[in-house]
Amino acid sequence: MDKDVASDDLEKRKYEFKRLLENYEEYTGSGTQLVTIYVPEDRQISDVVSHVTQEHSQAANIKSKDTRTNVTNALASIRAHLRYYKKPPMNGMVLFSGAVNVGGGQTDMVTEVFESPPQPIQTFRYHCDSMFLTDPLREMLLEQGLYGLLVLDRREAHVGWLKGKRIEPVKGTTSRVPGKQRKGGQSAQRFHRLRLEAIDQFYKEISELAGDLFIPDRYDIDGILIGGPSPTKDEFLDGNYLHHELRERVLGKFDVSYTDESGLYELVNAASDVLSDAAIIKDKVAMERFFKELHQGEKATYGFGPTRENLIMGAVDKLLISSDLRKDVINITCEEGHQNYNMVDMRSKKIDEQCPDCGKKSEVTLREDVVKHLVELAEYRGTEITFVSTDFEEGNQLLHAFGGIAGVLRFPTNV
């Protein structure tokens, strides 16, 4: 399979998985009656059924009648779903079942099987509580890739992390290195010696700062990036101030203008070639291409309506969707046959059913996740899809300034 196609499919699956997870994180039950079971890929289904049967028997001893009924019903539903499996799917599966609160003192029984999560389930877990156990799944959605970031000059230094698509500034320090202009009464030689001693002491302080942050995770770090003006960063590395286990993980030195928190962001941009496989760089490249066409070319589209029309025409080369977009698309159809597609809030219950074309009464003939709607149009026309994180400035702009939807066109259109 083409690498880009495989990546698109993975990103789509992660989005769908995240959406389902968000739904189940909102559910609550009255008392400990929501059941969650994590099943690893190598677990025998017969063992899982035996465990569920045993829990079902023990649930008969629950004192509260409502809780007893809800737990036994949940376990019975899980056991019924397990009959459809000869063995767990790849990476295992998670089963959720229970009576969830729907308001007004009412409950509704839900049962869901999450198959093939993004990472393998390691251990079998049975959990019964007032909420479904989703933390292990939420951890699976964290972006992979861990890079240490260090920017420094002779005045200040900052350290932080690049975790997947997220830059996390952690800590900084400032120096007492005197400027090149010596104070009156000091000989040039003595002033120079004192300045070198202060620089040496500050480099040791930076080394300690970096060591405290990076050494505990040194076996998980994919690399360390160091930025700053010349010759500061060269002096620091060539002087062997950095712990030897961390020096082995340095991917490169990069020129940056700032050494405060903003310098960490500048460092990631400067190291884009080294980080070409890192998720945040792929998102940045996609957004840079969109902005270039938006300001200098004729092949940019954004917003739900124009982007959807361009997708239908087969004109979109790359579709950009914010990973935090949570909207529905509705289609209202009137008596005259006019159809209008609009994007609405997912929680919106009341929809204006008046046709904007003729003013006659209309009815909602379609309502679904807007991302699902656009992805299906894109896949049918061979459009590349990129889910863009909001963990950097341009990604945040996509969500808030462009409605979470944009694209780069194959050819200019009038839409």
Structural description of this entry:
There is one protein chain. This protein is an alpha+beta fold and 415 residues long. The chain has 3 domains: 27-137, eRF1 domain 1 (Translation, Eukaryotic Peptide Chain Release Factor Subunit 1, Chain A, 2-Layer Sandwich); 146-177 and 195-277, 2-Layer Sandwich (Nucleotidyltransferase, domain 5), CATH 3.30.420.60; 283-409, 2-Layer Sandwich (60s Ribosomal Protein L30, Chain: A), CATH 3.30.1330. The chain is built from 12 helices and 16 strands. It has helices at 3-25, 45-58, 65-82, 135-140, 188-214, 232-238, 244-247, 261-270, 279-296, 304-312, 370-380, 393-401, and strands at residues 34-39, 93-103, 106-115, 125-129, 146-152, 156-163, 166-174, 223-227, 250-254, 300-302, 316-322, 327-334, 339-345, 362-369, 384-388, 405-409. Strands 7-6-5-8-9 form a 5-stranded mixed β-sheet, sandwiched between helices. Strand 2 and strand 3 (106-115) form a beta hairpin. The longest helix has 27 residues, at 188-214. The chain is flat. The model has no long low-confidence stretch (mean pLDDT 88).
